[in-house]
Amino acid sequence: MPLPPYRVDYLPIVDRPVIRWPGGARVALWVAPNVEHYEYLPVFDGKRDPYPRSPYPDVQQYAYCDYGNRVGFWRMLEVMDKYGIRCTVSLNLAVLEHFPEVRDAMLARDWAYMSHGFYNTRYITTYTEAEERAFLKDNIDTLARQTGMRLKGFFGPSSTGTERTPDLLAEFGILYHCDWAHDDQPVPIKVKSGRLISVPYTFEINDGHVLRTYCEGEYFSRIIKAQFDTLYREGAESGRVMCIALHPFLIGQPHRIQHLDDALRHILSHEGVWLTTADEIAEYYLAHYYDQAAGHAARLAG
């Protein structure tokens, strides 16, 4: 029987089974550095141009992004180490081969890994089913070969995907999908077989949107703290998820890094914060709340 056109049931947050995080935490906090690689001479797929500003090579944009792996990552890493934060890296998997020093630094800190494709200049929107299957298998195999880790999460390269992507993710045993930044709690995603959930990602407190377009570091810190304060208050009733999404070439600039430190200091001064990874959030939700949420959705559907 074909799936309905909508992947996710509408479940008002005011009427859901209550979520309790480990230790009674109000907020499950995960930090998602997008550690990316942008190609100097990308291949245009005929639909979405990676560098529409000029003919290739667009040295300005390539070099701007390249700052992240050369400098910004290491500056950001100092702040993560200061607070003992084990990140969930949204990773262009080509980084593992192109930048082994970055790979080794992440491995030494036992970070979790969510695939963000191979390059942030290669999109999967135009893939056939066979191409997408081969792509996902390559994702899984590359991460295992380079890190020894199992791939549990996926965020499409530059937020791209196809209509079949959720079904294939579940088929390949991937637990969660982060393209669905539509909630403050995990929710089930409908798939043809198996189970898949959305773990809340963010485009609001995401330096890729805030710092690259209209605001600066002090404002970024202010909205992170405001986001946390609201979720912390609401989390007393039912647990919330908060993601802070970062890009080293943006937050790792010398004039901005202090503002990330300021925001994290505010959040981690509170009790009742589960400092965790997206992998752990997904596993905990699947073990304790997935069936409740699926049953609740079925009852609402009549």
Notes on the protein architecture:
The chain is of the alpha/beta class and 302 residues long. The chain has one domain (25-44, 53-300): Glycoside hydrolase/deacetylase (TIM Barrel, Alpha-Beta Barrel), CATH 3.20.20. The chain is 41% helix and 12% strand. Strands 1, 2, 3, 4, 5, 6, 7, 8 and 9 form a nine-stranded mixed beta sheet that branches.
Instruction: Count helical runs.
Output: 11
**Structural shape:** globular
Please give the CATH architecture: Alpha-Beta Barrel
Which residues sit in consecutive blocks of at least 5 with pLDDT less than 50? none
Strand % is 5-15%
Q: Which CATH class is shown?
A: Alpha Beta
Mean pLDDT: 96
Structural class: alpha/beta
Rg, nearest Å: 19 Å
- Describe the biggest sheet? 9 strands, mixed
CATH topology: TIM Barrel
Tally of domains: 1
Order of helices and strands: EHEHHEHEHEEEHHEHHEHH
Based on DSSP secondary structure assignment, what is the total number of beta strands?
9
Distance between the termini: 18 Å
Features:
302 residues; 9-stranded mixed β-sheet; alpha/beta; single chain; globular; TIM Barrel; 11 helices; 9 strands
Summarize the structure.
The protein has helices at residues 59-82, 95-98, 100-108, 129-147, 165-171, 207-213, 217-234, 248-251, 257-267, 278-288, 290-300; strands spanning 27-35, 88-91, 112-115, 153-154, 176-177, 187-189, 196-198, 240-246, 273-275.
Topology:
Layout: E1 27-35, H1 59-82, E2 88-91, H2 95-98, H3 100-108, E3 112-115, H4 129-147, E4 153-154, H5 165-171, E5 176-177, E6 187-189, E7 196-198, H6 207-213, H7 217-234, E8 240-246, H8 248-251, H9 257-267, E9 273-275, H10 278-288, H11 290-300
Parallel strand pairs: 1-2, 1-8, 1-9, 2-3, 3-4, 4-5, 5-7
Antiparallel strand pairs: 6-7
